[in-house]
Design brief:
single chain; 574 residues; alpha/beta; Ubiquitin-like (UB roll); five-stranded mixed beta sheet; three-stranded mixed beta sheet; 50% helix; globular; disordered C terminus; semaphorin receptor activity; Plexin_cytoplasmic_RasGAP_dom; Plexin cytoplasmic RasGAP domain-containing protein
Length: 574
Amino acid sequence: MFHPASVIFCHQANDTTRPNVEEGITLFSTLLNNKHFLITFVHALEQQKDFAVRDRCSLASLLTIALHGKLEYYTSIMKDLLVDLIDASASKNPKLMLRRTESVVEKMLTNWMSICMYSYLKVRTERSPERQFDSKRSALTRFFFSQETVGEPFFLLLCAIKQQINKGSIDVLTGKARYTLNEEWLLRENIEAKPQVEHFTNSLLNINVSFQGCGMDSLSVRVMNTDTICQVKEKIIEAFYKNLPFSQWPRAEDVDLEWFDSGSNSKLLQDLDNSSVMEDGRKKLNTVFHYQVPEGASLAMSMKDKKENTLERVKDLDTEKYVHLVLPHDELIETKKSHRHSHRKKVLPEIYLTRLLSTKGTLQKFLDDLFQAILSIPPDRPPLAIKYFFDFLEEQADKRGITDPDTLHIWKTNSLPLRFWVNILKNPQFVFDIDKTDHMDACLSVIAQAFIDACSISDLQLGKDSPTNKLLYAKEIPEYKKRVQCYYKQIQEMPPLSEQEMNAHLAEESRKYRNEFNTNLALTEIYNYAKRYRNQVVNALEANPTARRTQLHHKFEQVIALVEDNIYECCSEA
């Protein structure tokens, strides 16, 4: 979440064992802990045209890792850089500040929010007998929820979304489903045109499955006759492994599934085999219906021999050659038409809208609980970091004579809801060890958009041409807006924090993540940026009176000389 390139975790140590290199990196670490050097260093790099947004985000994340043990200092640097950003924005359009993540400090703020708000997602507590978790919470093996965290309602919402999607047919190749929140991912069944086709008979059946080597008794698993064999395998795997994190589950491609009929005969079930049929020039994936698997059938799953070559995932097959539930050409024609007539909104037939609304209604209680948890202040754990930062924003607005309440609302929204919560809503894999399917992602995008609309100061201008995904939660948005405004007001009314209180809180947050990251490798990566822009950094340090007075440019040159093992240069500058 911090570092997009993940170099901290894959970088191989090479010459960092040389004494000169270690000494140079240690000296560089000392410089990074000098406020005048670090701020000058960041500004110098950001002024370079080839220092792209990706570089800025990487540098911010590397600094977060390098300084995570000194969160008070990191916060001080972030605030100083934010003051510079506010000064630049105030002279243009202050409402646009923090709208994107294009500068080092904006990414630093994202990381800071992630660190400070993490405890509101998951809290370490002891498991007690009366709070044993059921299978829906099986992905939470390291952390257990307290009653005040956002994690539990979020996880239950994810479970509800998955359960609702799985209630109907899902096209394994396109990812589209009968039940969804997202119109673009809706499986549009042409029931009238194909009344006899098994695609559209959503009957469920129970099968009895044993899993060789799993150490568990056979289980009854519910599947659909439209399920491909891959989808059946995934449902069986989930039934057997639901109490383990998703990262420990076997893949559907790694297991075999065998069906035993009433006699002693058995048949290996596969998505594609000699029995597969052709439909409109495409090979049709085998389903439960294709094999005529009956209710109560006995099946056995086993791990494949590791020496066997595992085929590519079914969902990655070419839709020009294979088909599951729907042929893609009708949808492509509709897409092309919509592009030609983009000024006209394609009306969603009532039968499809009903299914969207049905899914929304099923999930509404879970969504309300989640939004309530996000926009509530736990009485025993008030969000000190948010109070501190929102007060900082109000102070900066006051200093610049910015009295428009909408501007402050936008700043706060861009800092917390849009910068942190929306990111979490769209990326639950940052919090839980779960499988986020493409369809789950599509549903979460609709939910995240509803949250974004709730935080906006603008009223939704909706009409018959508005996107269905916007119309879906139009009725709830006004109430959600009130919750957001109430939350901001409650934060504002909290007692102000002194610097000493905030520093103590930040120090405690730092201690929670001690030894979580490889600080030395982060320093090495930051040094690589310093080396790349050596001349520009030196010039910036020489142009800064405070930096020049404390000889920071000479110390920086000494770092370069030590790490690059240029003994002559190092000695000549000493």
